[in-house]
Design a protein that fits this description.
Layout: H1 3-12, H2 20-33, H3 38-42, H4 46-49, H5 53-58, H6 62-70, H7 78-105, H8 109-119, E1 126-128, H9 129-135, H10 140-152, E2 156-160, E3 168-172, H11 174-195, H12 200-218
Antiparallel strand pairs: 1-3, 2-3
Helix pairs in contact: 1-11, 2-6, 7-11, 8-11
């Protein structure tokens, strides 16, 4: 997808295994079976994407092949394996989409993450340096080095707090906020491409099912 086309879309886009080692090996095997081939992992080209839903449901994906390869070799529940492995592979595609978004904006991951934390505060996109370091799990020295890089690039500025001169606040510059917004738009493109095959009702149903799964894990 060219940059102009992608930006246009961004604007318009509003199981059980016998042991941990076996499960890990199967998941890695499924990931490798995609071979980095986008046609295989996403269901093919635009012509194939326009196929009838019944045809899409009967098509074989990398997880179907993964399950067939492991059936009879290790005991697992097929529906559970299918769900979990597809979640793992989709998560990989999300990660790759984020990497592409950063590549489009020329930002490194650590730069985006720091700017993202500041942007979450709302205007004027500011936070105490010590608080930011705690959120990013950085030592004071590590935070200083990161801020030196960002400040040199004109993406953040450091300010002495008016109430306490010993405290240093970090603030996104206008350029920093613009670059962060650009990265967020590109991330939106990647996310929209992934969920595009589903209609509104299917998206809502999937979100509800995933929420039920996540709540069960988080409230154990």
């Amino acid at each position: 997808m060219g940059r102009e086309a992608a930006e246009g879309r961004a604007r318009s886009a509003g199981g059980r295994a016998t042991g941990a080692e076996a499960a890990t090996e199967r998941a890695e095997d499924a990931a490798e079976s995609t071979g980095g081939n986008s046609a295989e992992s996403t269901g093919g080209n635009s012509g194939e994407n326009s196929a009838a839903e019944s045809g899409e449901e009967s098509a074989e994906d990398s997880v179907d092949r993964h399950i067939a390869r492991w059936t009879g070799k290790v005991p697992f529940d097929v529906p559970t394996e299918a769900v979990i492995t597809r979640i793992q592979l989709l998560a990989k595609h999300v990660s790759h989409g984020k990497e592409r978004a950063l590549a489009e904006t020329g930002l490194q991951a650590f730069e985006f993450e720091t700017m993202h934390r500041l942007a979450s505060r709302g205007a004027p996109w500011r936070a105490p340096s010590a608080e930011l370091a705690a959120e990013l799990l950085l030592s004071p020295a590590g935070m200083t080095g990161r801020l030196d890089t960002l400040e040199k690039s004109g993406l953040v500025r450091r300010l002495r707090a008016a109430a306490d001169r010993r405290r240093v606040d970090v603030e996104l510059t206008e350029e920093g906020h613009r670059r962060w917004l650009d990265a967020m738009r590109w991330r939106g493109v990647a996310e929209h491409e992934m969920i595009e095959p589903l209609d509104d009702g299917e998206r809502a149903a999937l979100a509800a099912l995933l929420k039920r799964m996540l709540l069960a894990v988080e409230t154990r």
